[in-house]
């Protein structure tokens, strides 16, 4: 397999990580593009480790952190999409948490990505866990047609301190539940029992109100194509509870920060 083919197979996951970190498809993709440009300029960066994925994530992290350190939080220096999202860049504890919980890296590999030792990584993950636990609880709408998965999600969401508004198995049920009370966040499967689409149901809701959405699907590669719009938060089935917890907290974090910026601007 050529170097370009090897790199290509890891790109969907690097893009997922970049979007979870920035809360934006445009911003995340811009940083991934910068990573690829740096790789083209210096292909030897892949020779520094036996794992192409770890090398890519290391290079991405160096670019990400160098830009963040040179920008003032909340004061973008230009009107470019990447600059607009600099205020949202997650601190190092969130990077550590996402690398382990969302990307499924071992502690050793996550430490290599961040250029730290394992004890420091564990400290960062613990710091992030405490911060994420302090997030404001919200109302959650679950759109999922598989009973056991829906029960797992419901138990997980309630265990994190949130309230489940209801579980919808179809497009029609989802719209009806959202009309009773607006959710603070939505967890949605894409292919539903009656052949309807969770994606269509969510898009219909978003025409009436804004809410962060996490899509859960057995076929994430179908939605990581580079075509717009893409889901900003995407989890693959079968999922780990820690993954749902990490992405749920990240989605609420970015939604909360966006509201704070809106209040300051008004």
Give a structural overview.
By secondary structure, the chain is α/β, with parallel strands linked by helices. The protein folds into 2 domains: 3-132, PhyR, sigma-like (SL) domain (Butyryl-CoA Dehydrogenase, subunit A, domain 3), CATH 1.20.140; 136-265, Response regulator (Rossmann fold). The chain has 12 helices and 5 strands. The chain has helices at residues 3-8, 11-22, 25-41, 52-69, 81-84, 92-101, 107-114, 118-133, 147-159, 171-180, 198-206, 241-265, and strands at residues 139-143, 163-168, 185-189, 213-217, 234-236. A 5-stranded parallel beta sheet has the order 2-1-3-4-5, sandwiched between helices. The longest helix is centred in the last third of the chain and has 25 residues, at 241-265. The model is unreliable at 68-90 (pLDDT under 50).
What is the topology?
Blueprint: H1 3-8, H2 11-22, H3 25-41, H4 52-69, H5 81-84, H6 92-101, H7 107-114, H8 118-133, E1 139-143, H9 147-159, E2 163-168, H10 171-180, E3 185-189, H11 198-206, E4 213-217, E5 234-236, H12 241-265
Parallel strand pairs: 1-2, 1-3, 3-4, 4-5
